[in-house]
């Protein structure tokens, strides 16, 4: 038993879980064409959830702050992107593909900029006074979430908003009898790019070194003379921007968004962060892919179990590894 | 913490007694249908908030699954009344079934996850509650889905029942109040709530309550003295779950309707959280004050805001902000400010008045 464990560990250990889930899904579903479609959908969904969850996980790891209002950034990102796309409506349907791409890019940039600004505001005004007090952190960020949801209701109203998609992301590629939506590929690619960028920043740069050191032992880094608090504001802003980006991508994926989106995604994001282990982006990616894949497979096999499946997955993983799959050192 | 014998504590307790008296005579004092609804809702929420205060205020557990237990109790009674007719056996069976399910879930969640950090626990309960909410809205055949269930309460509580018959064969009246089943229903809710509240008050005053506070203040130390922290936490989590479940059952009997919006939705969880923080965590009295203020605000603040929005209709932004639907926005802001500046809430802050400075 331990030998099998060693062999598995050498080839990636828990990192193989998504492959295992994919293989299990293949056996249970039986039809290769639907399996490919579902897997692509699951991976794309996982990547978008990864965008939303990575910031939350990093912020917690670095500062021991859990932001229950994180999903507010997701919904704001989604609605801002939707408004930007609607505003640039003329470019979306244009023949010129450059205009198409520019419109999508501008919408995403708008969401990111908002995320940066809102993250700065949130960190300095809302969270700074309650460092190191978990109970009040939970309460305050919950209050901020309520206010943020009400602001969204005030600006965009309670009825679902339609999100126009640029023409170049519409439609699907047909390979044999498999059809793959282009938007899903785009979402997957973007998520992967963000992951690689985050990975490189964290592992190859000086700033990343400081962040990782801060996650591991904050006092020691401060004692060495580095301003962890400034770094933290930056990480918080980055996390919020990623959440807003994730929300923007999600809006394009759903094409119809309602103010309830934030609350729905919050649960999923929490589950992902718990599964992955707080504080590590590798764990978050792993958790997000697992949730995406399992959600899509179960949604196909037993539609009513879709949300419960995430919960069961979380329970199972917590029983197996109480602090998540790949927690940051601690 | 010499909070119990200050002038402030006296003020709070007097206020709570006054509220209790007002609730006791509510059917006679406020003679319209809506006021009675409000009074019954206040009774139920006092119990619900007080049981949540056992967790968050006395033990320092942040759970987002409290509406789940409330909803389980409500749905248990509702389903039994729907399936078995409106007898007392249905009420008993449904209530017991709801309590049993709540207990099982509470033990499972408690033992699984009360060992971990407060923050993990909050997230896990949030996830569990959302799954139950989804299940309730998807299992159409049993729970009625989004529409909920309408059923008849035991015939004692039906408005047509006459508790006393007057000389003319019609329902007798006392101070202009009809002695009908509606009145019996209200007093059923009131007495159930009173009993549960007194039970919890007694519990917090007992040695058990002291242990819970010790765990809240310094977990490691409580453990070192020899108290089994996880066992105590799980126990109080179960008690709170059972009380919430009972409150749900009596609310289901009073309302004669149970649906996701009245019993399970996340909005109720937020209400409870607001009530407990506004009223004051860690004092049973705070639960009473918070519940009364919030329920009154829910019913009457909207009317007030409607007036204000109408009065400011010509100004640019104000009417938008004062729209009745925006009341949660204001409550959210008040909530944040309260957590910043008065973390002890209304009751906690007032109870400190007149306390010796050094004692705090």
Could you characterize the architecture of this molecule?
The complex is a heterodimer of chains A (330) and B (360). Chain A has a two-stranded antiparallel ribbon. Chain A has a two-stranded antiparallel ribbon with strand order 2-3. In chain A, 75% of the residues lie in helices and 4% in strands. Chain A is mostly helical and 330 residues long. Chain A has a single domain (33-320), classed as Orthogonal Bundle (ABC transporter involved in vitamin B12 uptake, BtuC). The longest helix of chain A is centred in the first third of the chain and has 32 residues, at 32-63. In chain A, strand 2 and strand 3 (178-181) form a beta hairpin. Chain A has 14 helices and four strands. Chain B has 360 residues and is an all-alpha fold. Chain B has one domain. Helix content of chain B is 73%, strand content 2%. Chain B contains 17 helices and four strands. In chain B, strands 1-4 form a two-stranded antiparallel sheet. The longest helix of chain B has 28 residues, at 284-311. The termini of chain B are close together.
